[in-house]
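Before any further analysis, backbone shapes were mapped to integers, which produced the following:

***
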Amino acid sequence: EVGRLNVYPACPMCSLSVWLDGHCVEIEFDHAAAAFAGPAGRAAWSPPAASRRLPRIAFCGPMTQPSASWAPGAVHGLMFMLSTDAVVALTGIDPLMLRNQILPAEAVLPVDWAPLWAALADERDAGGCGRALEGFLGPRWSDLRPASGTSGHYRDWAETLALRAAVSGPGRSLRQVERR
């Protein structure tokens, strides 16, 4: 059961997720963290009795804390990340109003996004899903893309995340990375 946990770090970006096969339920991060507390935590862990099923097409606002989900079976999905600046430009929505929330995308995003929901409704292939997202967002974003590119605070966040990943393996430390 523990192997079906998905744990996501706090993230200043938004995401659009599409479940192609299977589904997940949202669980409290503290409940998921108990599974990683060592053998005793794993032995005592069980999936939550009553949890909210995540929507098939979900919009996730910026997360100020880690989050977690659990899959009752095999799942296959796609997650598309968007900077908060891009969300504002593409939708006019203030993403901070959706902080720490995972909601049905069609309930949050503007009605002119309905063609995207129609394109994704029966899609069960990651390639087809990616093409639908690219076909819908590509033209819109090319008209709106800021000349300066990605904001510096996202670059800092991404570099910090990459450094943590680089030093998280056994036998690796920040000092070893600095020496290289």
User: Anything to note?
Assistant: The first helix runs from residue 29 to 35. The chain has a mean pLDDT of 82. The radius of gyration is 18 Å.
